[in-house]
């Protein structure tokens, strides 16, 4: 588990903030998302399940289902499905607000603060989640997620990670592994 966390950490700190999305990229994201969001809950469940399978340590942050081992059992969990929907609704808000950078910034600030202060989630997990989102969308919607669409999503998710990282830094976040708390 420790290697998993350390692996991504250095990369996250050196992520360069990508250039802002251009109009074409925004349209590609919004059009592709409309198709994904039709199956909001299923897509959200697939994304969270993949996160837990690829990065098992991410389950530690979910008291309601951190001890559930079987993916089938997770899928049936009301709390799990509720969180999957919450993740999808959060992404939906961002996608709908791509033309409003203030709204995007305030949403990311709220998400960052909640995950840093209330949930104590290491920021590297946003990078893990971003990779999982791209992976699952590409597999589940291959006809929608073309190379151009994937590139636009990659840029958006990198922006998201940078913004959330900045919120953590503003809050004076230090890795839990180095703090005595």
TrEMBL record:
| Alphabetized SUPFAM superfamilies for the sequence | Globin-like
Cite the entry's keywords alphabetically: Heme, Iron, Metal-binding, Oxygen transport, Transport
Superkingdom of the source?
Eukaryota
Q: Does the keyword Transport apply?
A: yes
Q: What molecular function does GO assign, one term?
A: heme binding
Annotated transmembrane regions: none
- Reactions catalysed: 2 superoxide + 2 H(+) = H2O2 + O2; Fe(III)-heme b-[protein] + nitric oxide + H2O = Fe(II)-heme b-[protein] + nitrite + 2 H(+); Fe(II)-heme b-[protein] + nitric oxide + O2 = Fe(III)-heme b-[protein] + nitrate; H2O2 + AH2 = A + 2 H2O
Looking at the record, the residues that make up the Globin domain are 20-169
Output the Pfam families linked to this UniProt entry: Globin
Q: Which residues form a coiled coil?
A: none
The EC number(s) this enzyme carries: 1.15.1.1
EC class, as a word, reads oxidoreductase
Q: What PANTHER family does the entry give?
A: CYTOGLOBIN, CYTOGLOBIN-1-RELATED
Q: What's this protein's family per the entry?
A: Belongs to the globin family.
- What is the protein name for this chain? superoxide dismutase
Provenance organism? Sparus aurata
Which gene produces this protein? CYGB
């Amino acid at each position: 588990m420790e290697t998993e966390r350390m692996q991504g950490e250095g990369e996250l700190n050196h992520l360069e903030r990508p250039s802002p999305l251009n109009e074409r990229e925004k349209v590609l994201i919004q059009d592709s998302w409309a198709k994904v969001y039709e199956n909001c809950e299923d897509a959200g469940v697939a994304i969270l399940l993949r996160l837990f399978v690829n990065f098992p340590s991410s389950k530690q942050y979910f008291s309601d289902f951190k001890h559930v081992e079987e993916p089938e059992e997770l899928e049936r969990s009301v709390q799990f499905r509720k969180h999957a929907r919450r993740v999808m609704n959060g992404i939906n808000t961002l996608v709908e607000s791509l033309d409003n950078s203030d709204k995007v910034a305030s949403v990311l600030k709220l998400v960052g603060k909640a995950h840093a202060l209330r949930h104590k989630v290491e920021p590297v997990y946003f990078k893990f989640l971003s990779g999982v989102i791209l992976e699952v969308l590409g597999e589940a919607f291959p006809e929608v997620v073309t190379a151009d669409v994937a590139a636009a999503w990659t840029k958006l998710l990198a922006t998201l990670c940078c913004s959330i990282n900045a919120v953590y830094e503003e809050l004076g976040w230090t890795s839990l592994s180095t703090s005595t708390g």
